Amino acid sequence: MSDVPYKTYLPENDIPTSWYNLRADMKNKPAPLLNPATRQPCTADELGHVFCEELVQQELDNDTKFFPIPKEISDFYKMYRPSPLVRAYFLEKALGTPAHIYYKFEGNNTSGSHKLNSSIAQAYYAKKQGLKGVTTETGAGQWGTALSMACAFFGLDCKVFMVKCSYEQKPFRREVMRTYGADVTPSPSDTTDVGRRILAEHPGTTGSLGCAISEAVEYAVKHEGYRYVLGSVLNQVLLHQSIIGLEAHRAFERLGVKPDVIIGCAGGGSNLGGLIAPFMGEKLRGEKDYRIVAVEPASCPSFTRGVFAYDFCDTGRICPLAKMYTLGADFIPSANHAGGLRFHGMSTILSQLYHDKMMEAVSVEQTAVFEAAEFFARTEGTLPAPESSHAIRAAIDEALRCKREGIEENIFFGLTGTGYFDLVAYQKYNDRTMTDQIPTDDELAVPRAKLP
Amino acid sequence: MSDVPYKTYLPENDIPTSWYNLRADMKNKPAPLLNPATRQPCTADELGHVFCEELVQQELDNDTKFFPIPKEISDFYKMYRPSPLVRAYFLEKALGTPAHIYYKFEGNNTSGSHKLNSSIAQAYYAKKQGLKGVTTETGAGQWGTALSMACAFFGLDCKVFMVKCSYEQKPFRREVMRTYGADVTPSPSDTTDVGRRILAEHPGTTGSLGCAISEAVEYAVKHEGYRYVLGSVLNQVLLHQSIIGLEAHRAFERLGVKPDVIIGCAGGGSNLGGLIAPFMGEKLRGEKDYRIVAVEPASCPSFTRGVFAYDFCDTGRICPLAKMYTLGADFIPSANHAGGLRFHGMSTILSQLYHDKMMEAVSVEQTAVFEAAEFFARTEGTLPAPESSHAIRAAIDEALRCKREGIEENIFFGLTGTGYFDLVAYQKYNDRTMTDQIPTDDELAVPRAKLP
Fold first, then answer.
1. B246 and B293 both lie in a single domain
2. CATH number reported for the structural domain that contains residue B63 in this entry
């Protein structure tokens, strides 16, 4: 073993004090959001009906490179940040690989994931604007939990629309949010127009992120003093999540190590976009080169089997259109797919970068993901979230490639969170009743045919 | 806010390399374990049938002050240690107290508690002795999870007898252990003589720690290549857990801070004994003075309402007798009592120290504990385990006393773990269906009347 410690924590006074806006270094900027009625780029005024004012500014700003982190947010960050950069010595040994494996672990907070990095920022701006509360959707529950914690901290009302199948399968997720004072409604519900419409069209539906987004947006727009907040996809979210990559970048500098390949799981892109931000910046500026790999579930393969086109972000088609890799706003991944990473589209920033061949993408099957998760739990101790385990799978595959080729690369991946609330999925894996759910070409063609 | 950072992590090379044996500094040594047949002090040979050899040496050694931590264990520690010493700035602010509140957080590992500190040590010595596997009992499930992780790491078979009511109420705890390869049996079971006897005498019993201990010991004694391991009460466990206090002590030295009052929850004493070890050592040696406070549930009040006497550690009466504060080996706390801290007795070390008036003890009621837990979750972010929340309750009460008296004390408590697997209890609290279960004098008198 080398001189690199198992875990590297930045000192508190070295935690980054600004977020990094990757768009500032992109030559090809991400395409703007379009107003669904006019098909013209959304103005700040239009977005301000849905989102908090300062967040709209962050959303639309493609030029400002650094946004200072307000003191209230950086104080909150100090409760659970810096997160450790971990050298996976035990995993390396168990794989017998010459590769050096590193991961940035974002699960050491009660929300169990990186989502808290953005929820506390969004809650802060909502509070600053004098709002009563915020609404959101949650699928696996990580984002809803993170937002509940943030709202409890700032004394904001928090209204969460939770995808119905998750609501039923994860009563404890619901209970954590309740402990933090949030109001949690299974979606689709009869409390919104769009929910009632979806229920009428698809009786017995177990819901989808796209439905829950529509309901949360409608509630925010129709209630005085409320705005909608979102845990992924948006530019502002990737901006907040850049704290992950910035910390990791500084930690690697302290260690004198340069990662060769950087791997992150990708659903809407919140973790991946944050993790890779400063490294991608160097790559865009031509300063350093890295292989950057997005890992997505084979059951929801936006990058690897989607199309790059304008599409709706929600099933109810009331949200702006985004140009992104998409499977079609009507695509709903199999209910058998565990955990998150269920969004039909992808961050416009990451979509543009992928289109420009600045990064790669792979899709992995669910049982292979849980095989990696169990292996990781037993060797590295931490029980990973299913989402994070997509990155683990890809990192292990890269480490085994290094073993075959006899080369010592530095592999770096994002371990976004813990799997404490995913034990129904682990049980299915342990019982060998888990299956892979890969959509056929026909199943993908139908929702894509409805692209606007 | 002062110069003290929110979180203090020791550098990896400053993690203690030896465990500290508090008994070496005790003038009045803890009373020896007695053989239940002969009522004579247990010999190493006798204990060697039940426990691993090196652990027996640690158990019986009242004189060696420091035990070097083997490299295999200290490497494993580096996966999740050092744990942070946290300054609870947000809690102080929310309470409006002049007190400075610190806590040592042991929940940042998948077992969710401090128990891993001893399980990895015990698994290591079992492996070194060439054993096939180990058996144990678990109540709330923290210890069973920690032992499962440790056994997976060293490739040992792990047989866990889980108190039946926990087994049924906490399927996810069971599933985590299964993910780590452990075999989990609800106790009492029909797989052991003592289990069958208890089932015949108490049909429909939901089990107790005392029953599960008896079953685990019987299984170990009757199966070649197995030994029994225990997560609390024993001297060896407090020895391993001294890592908590040693790290905290060094961190306080770095900060130039001296705690005035040190608070830990107490069930069998594993956390409390480890947390206070170096501080109590200073107190015993007359170097420094600290108030040291044990916090126990009003529903299982060994210190505050028990007697100091020799008693059985298990319901089946097959284990050695220990001189301790006890409610009687037949005492079973109310099934409504959430979480751990359900053992009828207490560490002999801590019992002796309490008897010698070196520490205080308070008991707290369950609803007051959950009130503190929720308050803490909302202010400090972390969802605490019910066990840990006993210490939070007492720390808050001390901080409020400081507020009333207008004095700035340094309050230090152990936050032993997280509450991810305790959400049924949180739900009861949220629904206001949780009750306090305080045994009457008569209810305590009956089991105590059967003391040997």
1. yes
2. 3.40.50.1100
Q: Looking at the structure, do residues B241 and B358 belong to the same domain, yes or no?
A: yes
**Domain-located, residue B77:** no
Is the CB of A378 less than 8 angstroms away from the CB of B180? Answer: yes
Q: By CA distance, what is A110's nearest residue in B?
A: B382
Same domain, B57 and B163: yes
Residues of B in contact with A79 (CB under 8 A): 6, 90, 380-381
Q: Is A110's CB within 8 Å of B418's CB?
A: yes
Q: Which residues of B touch A (CB under 8 A)?
A: 5-7, 9, 11-13, 75, 78-80, 89-90, 108-110, 112, 149, 152-153, 171-172, 175-176, 178-181, 374, 377-383, 418, 420-421, 423, 426-427, 430
| Co-location of B258 and B134 in the same domain | no
Q: Say if the Cβ atoms of B172 and A420 lie within 8 Å.
A: yes
Total domain count, chain B: 2
pTM to 2 decimals?
Answer: 0.96
3-state helix, strand, coil in chain B (%, to 5): 45, 15, 40
Residue B215 lies in a domain: yes
> What number of C-beta contacts closer than 8 Å exist between A and B?
110
Report helix angle A116-128 to A235-255, nearest 10: 130
Q: Are B109 and B90 in contact (CB under 8 A)?
A: no
Residues B260 and B314 in one domain: yes
Interface test with A, best of B2, B13, B80 (most A CBs within 10 A): B80
The three-state DSSP-derived secondary structure of B307-369 is EEEEEECCCCCCCCEEEEEECCCCCCCCCCCCCCCCCCCCCHHHHHHHHCCCCEEEEECHHHH
E strand or H helix at A15: none
Instruction: Please name the member of A12, A171, A430 whose beta carbon is closest to the beta carbon of B179.
Output: A430
Distance CA B208, CA B161 (A): 10
Tell me: do A217 and A364 sit in the same domain.
no
Q: Provide, as residue numbers in chain A, all residues whose Cβ is less than 8 Å from the Cβ of B9.
A: 9
Residue A42 belongs to domain spanning? 20-69+115-228
Looking at the fold, whether B250 and B286 belong to one and the same domain comes out as yes
Judge whether A1 lies within some domain.
Answer: no
Q: To probe the interface with B, which of A8, A110, A158, A433 has the most B CB atoms within 10 Å?
A: A110
The answer to the question of residue A76 being in a domain is no
Averaged pLDDT for residues B400-409:
98
Out of A228, A247, A272, pick the residue that ends a domain.
Answer: A228
CB A178 within 8 A of CB A207: no
Q: What percent of chain A has pLDDT over 70?
A: 100
Q: What is the pLDDT of residues B342-382, one digit of tens each?
A: 889 999 999 999 999 999 999 999 999 999 999 999 999 99
In this prediction the ipTM stands at 0.95
Residue A402 and residue A253 share a domain: yes
**Of the residues A207, A228, A249, the one at which a domain ends:** A228
Nearest CA distance, B373 vs chain A (angstrom): 10
Given a contact cutoff of 8 angstroms between Cβ atoms, the answer to whether B30 and B351 are in contact is yes
Whether B383 sits inside 8 A of A179 (CB atoms) is yes
Confidence of residue A191 (pLDDT cuts 50, 70, 90): very high
In angstroms, the separation between the Cα of residue B397 and the nearest Cα of chain A is 21
Query: At A237, which amino acid appears?
Result: V
Is a pLDDT exceeding 70 seen at residue B123? yes
- Chain B: residue nearest A418 by CA? B110
* Buried b or exposed e, range A300-317, using 16+ CB within 10 angstroms: bbbbebbebbbbbbbbbb
- Residue B1's pLDDT is 41
